[in-house]
Each structure stands twice: as C-alpha cells, then as structure tokens.
Amino acid sequence: MNSQRRRVLVAGVAAVAFAAVALAQPKERVIRVTARKWAFLPREIRLKKGVPVVLEFVTADVVMGFNAPDFKVRADIIPGQVARVRLVPDKTGTFVFLCDIFCGDGHEGMSGQIHVAA
Amino acid sequence: MQRSIDRREFLRLTGLGGVVFASGLAGGARLASAAQDDFYFVQLSDTHWGFNGPVVNPDAGGTLPKAVAAVNSLEFEPDFIVFTGDLTHTTDDPKERRRRLAEFRDIVKGLKNKNLRFMPGEHDAALDNGQAWKEFFGASYYSFDHKGVHFIAIDNVSDPAARIGEQQLAWLKSDLAKQAGDARIVVFAHRPLFDLYPQWDWATRDGAQAIDLLMPHKNVTVFYGHIHQEHHQMTGHIAHHSAKSLIFPLPAPGSQPKREPIRWDPSQPYRGLGFRGVDAEVQKAEYEITEYPVKRA
C-alpha cells in the first residue's frame, strides 16, 4: 500500500468515525423566532434546564436585536439572514429577552420571556 | 462665587437644599487657578416633544413650556442649561422628526438663559444615526471647560445598537489624555454608561470601555437621562446620577415585569416629573443636586 492510498484510507476511517459520533448525539431542538415591528413571535419560549437549544431569528422588516441578558447571549437580526444563538439554560425561572437595537416607536415594548423548567 | 454662595444660602433658608454628592476621590491636590469658581447648572432630560399618550400625560404639549417657565422662575440664573437627550419622541417619518426638533428648539428659545447645551437621545437620533438632530444642534459629542470643570458629552444613542463606537472612544481617550489625574470631570450621557438594568435596555453596549477610560481620573461624575427617574449609583469611585423626565416617569429598575410608563395621577398631576439644579463646588469636587417640580409654587 503506497503512502497516498494509506492516507486516503485513514481519512475514510476518520470520516466514518466522525459520522458515527454525530449520529449518536441527540439533535438539538431548533426554535424559530420572527421579529417584526414591534414584537417577537413567539413571545414565550419554554426550555428545560441543561438542555441545549438553537434559537433561529429572522426579521420581517428592519434590523432588530435579540438579547437575553440573564444568559449573556445576543444576536443581530439582519433582514434576509437567519441569526442563530445556541443556548444551554443554566438556571430555572422566567427571564426577559428583548430587542436591543432601537427600531422605532414600539421598540421599548418589544420583549418576550424565556421560561426554563427543571 | 458670591452668586453661588447666595444661592446655596437661599436653598438652605428655604428648605430647598439638595443632596450633596462628593466626586469619588476628591480632597487631594488643591486647585490653584484663579479662574475656578463655584457655579450651578440646570439639567433637563427626556422631554419627548411630540409624544401622544393621554393616559400617562394628558398635558404632553404643555409640560415642556411649563418646565421652561419653571426654569425661568429660578431665583438665581444658572451658568448653563443642559438637555440630556430624547428632546423629541421618535417617529419613522423624517419630515415629522424635523418638525418636532424645530418645535422643541423654538420652545426652548423661551429660556432666559441662552447658554444651552444639547445632547441626543435614541428617540431623536437612532433611526437616522443622528442626521436630523445634528442639522439642528450640531455635534452629538463634544467637550468644554467651565470654571475649572471639564465637561464631556458622550453620544451613546446615534448608533441604534447603543454603542459609543470606536471612533468616539478614541476621541474620548484623546480628550481625557489632556486632563490631569485630579481634574474635575463631569460627563453627560443619555443612556447609563454602566449596566443598570439590561433587561430593560438600560445600558450602553460598550459603556464599560468609556468607564475604563474615565477610571484613572480621580474626580468623575456622570449625569444622564433615559430611565425617567432619579437614580444614583457608583461604579468604583465614579458617581452616576440619572434625571427625571419631563413627559412620564418609568418604574424603578426591575420593580415590575414590564418597563411601562407610570400612569398619570389626576390627584397628583406631573408627579414624578421635573428637572434639577446642580451646584458644583469645584474645590471639593462636590455636586449638590436639587430636584425641582415641573410647576413651581
């Protein structure tokens, strides 16, 4: 077996091992949130402590922001793009998330809640 | 100096005396310049001209003119008057924004004192990066010296993401580099520079960088607006004092689930609204804050 064929074989084994690991991992839940003037839909997000989740954000009109200060995660939500935030809640309770990019008259009321259960 | 002493004596005699806040580390080197003199200025904030919400302020069109009249009726004329942002209430319409800014400017022309300093709030400036505001009031951040105090106005609102930004932070660093370590420094801002309550957007994204730049200076005091209530907090030796609004009060940070304006109480009209006088005792780096109601008796 020449060295080039050996490298290909090693790479193939590595790829199969990586795929097996990936299949063994539970797929993370994805929650899609739409931001528009001046609300998040959904406004309420229910999570479980310690269970990872991916929040996907799109905006229906202007640039918005997502900020959950209690979990120190935030994202810019740009029109035409999907913003993703991975969150692993480390505490239970109800926590505020809000738009942190000023977007007009109703901006100050543009918020929602994350409920984290045990 | 005589005028300021007279004013302080007047405040004490009339029971109007305010609360004295010492700037963090004052009391060090004595200032030598003969130009240093005690004085006082007036801070007005969050007038939100153009706001329409009878439930929280049925006299939205009359509150600012009443405040102008109240300032004009002060027994002693301030050295200057500063407006710390949200002069107007936001609108998506650029023409309407300019109309409100023009009306605001015309109303405050009624102030007897013509030494006026303006700053933008996010309602004035965030939707067009301060373009319209600058047409009326000029630079959105600047510094000036007055009787031994170095004043710095920081714009943390023209970026809708509430960032001061690298360019302005570089300017701030350069401006502060010219000041002695024990210089008397007063900062004006609209939003709090520290994380007061980010859950209600009461913060500045890169405010910590501004505070880091200010921290080496011993005598720094910040006056700001945005939260529509009086609030006093220290970050290290730097004192931060927020002002009342002239349109509607907001609840104490985190005191209720939502940041909603406090409703108008017909039995106590204009409750929670007002402006303040700040007496600067330069040598001691002390600031005596006196709160005034919208309508003076």
Describe the structure.
The complex is a heterodimer of chains A (118) and B (297). Chain A has 118 residues and is α/β, with parallel strands linked by helices. Chain A has a single domain, classed as Cupredoxins -  blue copper proteins (Immunoglobulin-like, Sandwich), CATH 2.60.40.420. Helix content of chain A is 19%, strand content 43%. Chain A has one helix and nine strands. Chain A has one helix spanning 3-24, and strands at residues 29-36, 39-41, 44-48, 53-59, 64-68, 73-77, 83-87, 93-98, 111-117. Chain A has a four-stranded mixed β-sheet, with no helix packed on it. Chain A has a three-stranded mixed β-sheet with strand order 3-9-8, with no helix packed on it. In chain A, a hairpin with a 2-residue loop joins strand 1 (29-36) and strand 2. The longest helix of chain A has 22 residues, at 3-24. The mean pLDDT of chain A is 87. Chain B has 297 residues and is of the alpha/beta class. Chain B has a single domain, classed as 4-Layer Sandwich (Purple Acid Phosphatase, chain A, domain 2). A six-stranded mixed β-sheet of chain B has the order 1-12-11-2-3-4, covered by helices on one side. A six-stranded mixed β-sheet of chain B has the order 5-6-7-8-10-9, with no helix packed on it. In chain B, helix 6 (166-177) packs parallel to helix 7 (207-214). The two termini of chain B are 27 Å apart. The interface between A and B is medium-sized, with 19 and 21 residues.
Helix/strand layout:
The complex is a heterodimer of chains A (118) and B (297).
Chain A: H1 3-24, E1 29-36, E2 39-41, E3 44-48, E4 53-59, E5 64-68, E6 73-77, E7 83-87, E8 93-98, E9 111-117
Parallel strand pairs in A: 1-4, 3-9
Antiparallel strand pairs in A: 1-2, 4-7, 5-6, 8-9
Chain B: H1 2-13, E1 19-22, E2 39-44, H2 60-72, E3 80-84, H3 94-108, E4 116-119, H4 122-125, H5 131-137, E5 142-146, E6 149-153, H6 166-177, E7 184-188, H7 207-214, E8 219-224, E9 231-235, E10 238-242, E11 275-281, E12 286-292
Helix pairs in contact in B: 6-7
